[in-house]
Amino acid sequence: MTLDAGDTFGRYELVSWLGRGGMAETWHAQLVGAAGVTKSVLIKKVLPEYADDEAFISMFISEARISATLSHGNVAQVFDFGQVEGEYFLAMEFVDGKPLDKVLKRAMRSGLPALPIPVAVFIAMEMCRGLHYAHSRTDSSGKPLGIVHRDISPDNVLVSYEGQVKIVDFGIAKAQLLRGFKTAPGVVKGKYLFFSPEQARGEEVDARTDVWATGVVLYELLCGRLPVDGPPHVVMMKIAHGEIPPLSQLRPDLPEALNRIVLQALSPDPAQRFATSHAFGDALAGFLYANHPRFSSLSLAHLLRVLFRGDLLNEGRELAVPDDFLSELKAWRQPVTPDQTPTVPHLRAIQTPRPSPTPVVVTRESQEEEAPDVPTAEIAPVRRSRSPWVGLAVGSAALLVLGGGIWWTPFRRAPEVPRGERPTVAPVVATSAPAPAPAPEQPVNIDAGIAPEPPPPPPPPPEDAWSETRVRKLLDDVYRLGKSNKELTRAAKLVQLCVDAVPDNADCRLAAGLTYERLRSLDKSVSHYQAFLQNAPPTDLRRSAVKDRLSALLQRKPQAQTPANEAELESSRSAVLMHLTRGRQKEALDAANQCVARLPREPDCHLLQGDVLAKMNQASESARSYERFLAFAPANHPRRPDVVQKLVELRATGAAD
């Protein structure tokens, strides 16, 4: 469906296109009611490439239903979700402001070293309030819903021109895990930097994962840079060992009390963090009002109005800012001594400092191009400048959460550099007028910050025609095909070429395992995962997640078909049909239940059970049976499309929880 401003989309009139993100395009729209009453909303329309992904759509609907129940001043509310001409959408609160990542970048471009301390602390405190509200939600019987955002980062926090702080996209991250992060170009590089250690390992997460991510956001707001940066495997190792530079050494004016609060939130051991976002927020509130008792949301509003004054004027708006705030802002811009970017040793959070190598700290400003401002805070993710090394490594971070539900991502491991051959990293210093230099014989990777050296002689061509470059290109093609369920068979043929040519290549084996799992060829998938574990080095961070995935697959392998099983299944079908034609639904259900008990991994037994339960109007139980059918049924099972549609309808109407 091609849309333009002024078009009607269901009940909504589209005002302007705002951007395109990893899973949706966004529109400013109006809900037109009776007597000409209108309400501004933000429409997130799921991208067409997601429409055929039954697992994503099912999860999207389930999570959207939960998100729509959230109503809190620090959470952007979801008003509506549904389907228009086959395209799914969310209608959510329109926030008149900017995303937090743009606020930070604009502040640093205006002369601030980062956000002023009270501003950063206030924003994080408000985030904690919204998160705690979501974390503590229960159902009608008082049972905790277990809501975890999973994707807290500055681009999922909106700040309004009135000083409100609102979190967006609750529940969306869980649905995105089913597709993998690589579906959103430019998004992968940033997201893994906010993973908690347990999230990176693919373990079950709870509210403390959001505490960690909020701590990372606050660190960046205060220091203008992330705690650690680099390829995923480097970042994850540093995070796992608590190697986070203390904020007070990156920002000398930072009080030690605040340094301790942030580092407690960033403890690699969840048990050592704040137990809840409420506790984290309380600690921040205690610090804020003890040191800045007059700070309020109006102070934040004034800062935004100053930073984005040009944007507002272009829209024909001018929001008032008092003179006393301008004086305070001038004081915030004063340089802090000593130098704000000292060489900083790694420190374990909340522990005694110990010397170790200087961390790589790169500001977001240096990584990103700022997108043009839009009149709303909801914008598409920004494409970042890309280092080839990082490009090879992003798969590592994605695989680290494979145990949490990722179905598809090209898992490529960053090449290991021998200890004696590691390059020396030097800072990249920008000058106003660099002297021209002769063109090098080999391209220089500017992003990586490698000190220029005479290029080594090119290695002799490998005897094996399957070079690393060729393998990488083939796996990129496998990934591209694998994004569509319709192209999975072609993807399998392609990845099999890789396996046949280089059977000891761990990346080929992993791609094959993922592809065959998508095709429900579980025996082949298990075989390739096992081969990956045999060939991947012990230090490969993907091993743990693959072991977990392998264990899960071995538990859900479908029932092996034997003549006896086929006879049992046919007998069950006949019995169910006979009882239903005679109006004996209870007896039909008994026959279907016996089929499931005797052949627990046979998809058609679960299908029989689901069909009978549906006839008995037992929607929740029927949905669970259909979900088990989808877990065991091959991709080409003739009833899969029908079952997926039934599940979508059940969840959309709220009949199945």
From TrEMBL:
It comes from the Bacteria. InterPro entries: Kinase-like_dom_sf, Prot_kinase_dom, Protein_kinase_ATP_BS, TPR-like_helical_dom_sf, Tyr_kinase_AS. Pfam families: Pkinase (PF00069). Keywords: ATP-binding, Kinase, Nucleotide-binding, Serine/threonine-protein kinase, Transferase. The keyword Kinase applies. The keyword ATP-binding applies. Residues 452-463 have a biased composition (Pro residues). ATP binds at residue 45. Residues 349-375, 431-466 are annotated as: Disordered. GO terms for molecular function: ATP binding; protein serine/threonine kinase activity. Residues 12-295 form the Protein kinase domain. This is Serine/threonine protein kinase. It comes from Corallococcus coralloides (strain ATCC 25202 / DSM 2259 / NBRC 100086 / M2).
